[in-house]
TrEMBL record:
InterPro entries: MCP, MCP_dom_sf, MCP_transmembrane, Mtm1-like. The chain crosses the membrane at residues 117-137, 157-179. It is found in: Mitochondrion inner membrane. It comes from Dicentrarchus labrax (European seabass). PANTHER family: FI19922P1-RELATED (PTHR45760), MITOCHONDRIAL GLUTATHIONE TRANSPORTER SLC25A39-RELATED (PTHR45760:SF1). SUPFAM superfamilies: Mitochondrial carrier. One of its GO terms (biological process) is heme biosynthetic process. Solcar repeats lie at residues 13-145, 153-237, 247-341. It comes from the Eukaryota. Signal peptide: none annotated. This is Mitochondrial glutathione transporter SLC25A39. Belongs to the mitochondrial carrier (TC 2.A.29) family. Its main location: mitochondrion. GO terms for cellular component: mitochondrial inner membrane.
Length: 350
């Protein structure tokens, strides 16, 4: 499996310090990226108000008094369930007309206050921050275990560690995110969490808590494997060009943006499928339908190919790259900065 390494990592930091660094990076990333997605949702809502909304479910187009849309805080995609007549419809009933992205930023800030750019963020952080902490901490632990515990070296190490770390994070968070969507659609308080889980298990079985796990894994695991493979490669090359032994903030930021963009482009078809699958599950749960007969991932992919051709599987190319690249850059550069800080603290103690 390649050359063996016998040296231990220099100025290693503890898992707790890795968790603090990744948690801080997750919060900063969400603060930076969320306004971009809020503006996108508001522009989409302007084009498709509630009374025009219809949802494809079970092969039938049904006029709807609710909407399901994807909300991204830069860390995870979350299903947001809007029911007409509730406070959530503020997404759709605001009278302000926007002529474009920049105009939306200006008008939302001026008429609704700066805080409106982070609408809906706090509930999603309950899932996104722990998922990011698990993911980044597991990646570093797995990478170091493969390199220094088992003594393996090679460019494939980040690829393997990244894929496995994401698989673990998705498996842990997936049922929690599904339950959060159910609770939101039924307007239940978090005190009813246990009742909601029992109800879901009783209705559709224990494995129903992992509905949507397949499409998420098919997108996120290859994305993470490609991302870390390219990140470590680009970072090493930039360090060599700059003649430094450890990556600084600008090197981490650049490597994160480049590797994030590459991974986003290569996994775009799976992102399109995951989006359709997530919205389908949200819509079916909102109307109280059983989840036992949901469409499989590969069937959705064939459906998109039949309807729209290969272009359908690469829909949203630019928006995804514009969203993912800066999010990856902010997250990894903040995380690396946090690790460097703790390394310095540990060295000073020694």
């Amino acid at each position: 499996m390649g050359e063996r390494a016998v040296n231990s990592p220099v100025a290693a930091i503890s898992p707790v310090q890795q968790m603090l660094a990744s948690g801080t990076g997750a919060l900063l990333t969400s603060v930076f990226v969320t306004p971009l997605d809020v503006v996108k949702i508001r522009l989409q809502a302007q084009q498709t108000p509630f009374h025009q909304a219809s949802a494809p479910w079970g092969g039938v187009i049904r006029p709807s008094k609710w909407r399901c849309f994807l909300y991204c805080n830069g860390l995870m995609d979350h299903i947001y369930v809007c029911q007409n007549g509730t406070s959530c419809t503020s997404w759709y009933k605001t009278p302000t007309h926007f002529s474009g992205t920049l105009d939306a930023f200006v008008k939302i800030t001026r008429h609704e206050g700066l805080r409106s750019l982070w609408s809906g963020l706090p509930p999603t952080l309950v899932m996104a921050v722990p998922a990011t902490i698990i993911y980044f901490t597991c990646y570093d632990q797995l990478r170091d275990f493969l390199r220094y515990g088992l003594g393996f070296q090679g460019s494939h190490i980040p690829l393997v560690a990244g894929g496995l770390a994401r698989l673990g994070a998705v498996t842990v968070i997936s049922p929690l995110e599904l339950v959060r969507t159910k609770m939101q659609s039924r307007r239940l308080p978090y005190s009813e969490l246990r009742v909601c889980i029992r109800s879901a298990v009783a209705q559709d079985g224990l494995l129903s808590l992992w509905r949507g796990w397949g499409p998420t894994v098919l997108r996120d695991v290859p994305f993470s494997a490609l991302y870390w493979f390219n990140y470590e490669l680009v970072k090493a090359q930039l360090c060599e060009q700059s003649r430094v032994t450890q990556a600084n903030f600008s090197i981490s930021f650049t490597a994160g943006a480049v590797s994030g963009a590459i991974a986003a482009i290569l996994t775009l078809p799976f992102d399109v499928v995951k989006t359709r699958r997530q919205i389908q599950l949200g819509e079916m749960d909102t109307v109280g339908a059983s989840l036992k007969k949901t469409t499989s991932t590969w069937h959705i992919m064939k459906e998109i190919w039949t309807e729209l051709g290969y272009r359908g599987l690469f829909a949203g190319f630019m928006p995804r790259v514009i969203k993912v690249a800066p999010a990856c850059a902010v997250m990894i550069s903040t995380y690396e900065f946090g690790k460097a800080f703790f390394q310095k603290v540990n060295l000073d103690r020694e």
